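Hey team,

Filing this mostly as a record. A colleague (T.K.) asked me to run one chain through the structure pipeline before their review meeting, and I want the input and output archived in the tracker in case anyone asks later how it was produced. No errors, nothing strange. Just documentation.

Input sequence:
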Amino acid sequence: MAMDVIDYEIRGSEMQFVEIELDPGEAAIGEAGSMMFMDAGIAMDTVFGDGSAQQGGLFGKLLGAGKRLVTGESLFTTIYSNNAQGKQRVAFAAPYPGKILPMDLRQTGGTLVCQKDAFLCAARGVSLGIALQRKLSTGFFGGEGFIMQKLEGDGLAFVHAGGTVVRRELKAGESLLVDTGCVVAYTAGVAFDIQFVGKVRTALFGGEGLFFARMAGPGTVWLQSLPFSRLASRVFAAAPQRGGAREEGSVLGGFGAGGLLGSVLGGDDE
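Output structure:
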């Protein structure tokens, strides 16, 4: 399928969304639940599997759906088509604080490998596939498992990353050690491997996990400062325990009315 050439504008700073302008006949594909708003002339069509595989018959649809199921995404993809006479706009919002990155696949060699939940939307014609890790160690300890998403084509795709994003250009023979959850995406020429931290004491008490991701060039790597898993773990740790109120920044949280001393003074027998 020919790639649609789309215009876009990324709005916001911390909670961003991308607004895509479609000419008559153009279309964009979006991850399920990512649409924010659209003009009245936009028509929605939910397809089974990858929107780019719809021309391949039943087998193509099943193959596209299977790829998305393996990567943990929805079996369905929504296509937003401009059926009006003039330009129409559709917007897609990021699911949590961070940055939306426009990726021109023509500049990445036609392929981009990214974490499983990074894809947000793309121009019609971009193919959503899977990238299998070649080494068992990478699959078991890489933080993303054996499978990552692979975007292919020569159009625009938009991926989402948490926190602040940094782009690193790696030359041939140059390598970078990264926390496994901080890897957002990388070009096909980058070698992705796993390296043990080195010292048992550092691994157990350093708070950085047992393994690093080793990214070796040549190619481009995009990194995020706040992986969603890290954000979720902090939110979970700060959540009230056993349904009780938790008072931050005060000794009353441990010894006040909602704490241990409050329970004793209040005659709590637990």
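Quick notes for T.K.: The two ends are 66 Å apart (CA to CA). The chain has six helices and 19 strands.
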